[in-house]
Design goal:
Helices cover 67% and strands 13% of the residues. It is an alpha+beta fold. The protein has two domains: 332 residues, Outer membrane efflux proteins (OEP) (Up-down Bundle); 75 residues, Outer membrane efflux proteins (OEP), CATH 2.20.200. The chain has a four-stranded antiparallel beta sheet, with no helix packed on it. A hairpin with a 6-residue loop joins β3 and β4.
Length: 455
């Protein structure tokens, strides 16, 4: 591997004519990709690492587990309750009469049980607990989808920063070569000093761009390391030529329909409406009666009040308890009014969630469509820019073009290459964002993107 890297370095630094700049750039990209392939990670690998490390996702998982436990708590209102109580007391009797003073112990133990027979509020609370579990599942799904998009965005941000730095370095090499040629031509008298100064100014500008690109890459790498919990994470590059995945279905209406029924935000809002409706029923049930089955078994031991001898008694009781609220200071009526208002609020929130998701889905769909159009246009622009550069180089050699024309053509070519790479990444991430907007994004969707990477 060392000898291959050294060979790549020699190729990049070997003097060549301006016509070989594109070849040098291609070799540089290939060498860079080969040099990191041994330790580079794919998008799926880094997502798996992020899923086990990201604090936001871990928090969502813990919240989901807590919601499961809380939902099970609501079941308690439907099940019997059993309690055991026991007590021991000692009494000292100080008689003022000739009867002697005495002390005695009293002991008792009670086992009591209660089973709700008719408690509508408990049943409704249990249904609310199950609805809350649906909300927690939707929140966890939304957190996973967010992590998929964040990982993909950070992954391709690093690749875009790498490409920018590579193209800036290639442009610097081309400008340096153009600067050297301008100086030679000035020395032999075939060009003016203006050519040298223009090339020097462009070289200084590219040098500043290189510094900025190196810092941007450093920051993007740090963001990826922080997300996945790996030091020195190295994403695999796209395999060229790349065939961008087709968006299916190719109808924005179908995507919107999916979003309005399956998006986690819509599910949460609709479930919140269901919970609010159940809360209204709970408030209205406050006017109704409750019926419980009760049972009690009591053991007690204490001296008889007449004979003073120890007396032990066993008492078993079984019954039905009925309770009907008659007046509670208008608390129940006001609770019903509150529940009605909260139900209306939840209904409005559900409608708003559907509209917001539909708008986001349309935006994501047209963004992907526009991005694919930009890729096609930039691919054509890349070929045109290369032809323009070749023509300007030839014109400069024969004296019909000046040095600034060549420099501008070089700058346009490398900027087009950089924009094309960035547009491809944006389309890939945009496709994932479209699935996220429609609520259909799952971890397996990364496999299609992963297949486009270098092995």
């Amino acid at each position: 591997m060392t000898s291959h890297t050294q060979q790549c370095t020699r190729l990049l630094h070997t003097p060549s004519s301006l016509r070989l700049n594109a070849l040098v750039l291609t070799v540089g990209l290939a060498c860079s990709a080969w040099g990191v392939s041994a330790q580079a990670q794919s998008l799926v690998e880094l997502f798996d690492a992020a899923r086990g490390f990201d604090a936001a996702f871990q928090s969502a998982k813990s919240a989901h587990d807590a919601a499961v436990a809380k939902a099970d708590q609501a079941r308690a209102g439907l099940l019997p309750t059993v309690g055991l109580s026991a007590g021991v007391s000692r009494s000292n009797v100080d008689n003022a009469s000739p009867v002697p003073d005495r002390s005695y112990d009293a002991r008792n133990a009670t086992l009591a049980a209660s089973q709700p027979l008719y408690r509508p509020v408990n049943r409704l609370a249990y249904e609310q607990g199950q609805k809350s579990l649906i909300v927690a599942q939707a929140q966890l799904k939304a957190a996973e989808q967010d992590l998929i998009v964040r990982t993909s965005q950070t992954y391709f941000d690093v690749l875009a920063a790498q490409d920018t730095l590579t193209y800036v370095k290639a442009q610097k090499a081309a400008v340096a070569e153009q600067l050297a040629a301008a100086k030679r031509n000035f020395e032999v008298g075939t060009s003016t000093v203006t050519d040298s100064r223009e090339a020097q100014a462009r070289f200084d500008l590219v040098l500043a761009q290189e510094i900025a690109a190196e810092n941007d890459l450093r920051v993007k790498r740090l963001a990826l390391d922080t997300l996945v919990g790996k030091a020195g994470a190295e994403p695999k590059t796209l395999a060229l030529p790349v065939a961008l995945p087709v968006v299916a279905p190719d109808d924005v209406g179908q995507w919107v329909n999916l979003a309005e029924t399956g998006h986690p935000g819509v599910i949460q809002a609709q479930t919140a409406l269901d919970i609010a409706s159940l809360e209204l029923k709970k408030a209205q049930a406050g006017h109704g009666p409750t019926v419980d089955l009760t049972a009690q078994y009591q053991l007690s031991k204490a001296p008889s009040s007449t004979t003073g001898l120890p007396l032990r008694s066993n008492t078993a009781t079984v019954g039905v308890q009925f309770n009907l609220p008659l007046f509670a200071g208008y608390a129940i009526q006001n609770r019903v009014r509150e529940a009605l208002a909260l139900e209306d609020k939840a209904r409005a929130d559900a409608d708003g969630a559907k509209r917001s998701v539909a708008q986001a889905t349309r935006t994501a769909f047209f963004g992907v469509q526009s991005g694919k159009g930009q890729v096609n246009a930039l691919e054509a622009a890349e070929a045109s820019s290369q032809s323009a550069l070749d023509a300007n180089k030839l014109g400069y050699q024969v004296g019909v073009r000046i040095n600034i024309d060549v420099l501008n053509a070089q700058s346009q070519l490398y900027q087009t290459k950089r924009d094309l790479a960035k547009a491809r990444y944006d389309v890939l991430v945009g496709s994932l964002k479209l699935r996220q907007a429609s609520g259909t994004l799952v971890a397996d969707d990364l496999n299609a993107v992963n297949a486009l990477l270098n092995r």
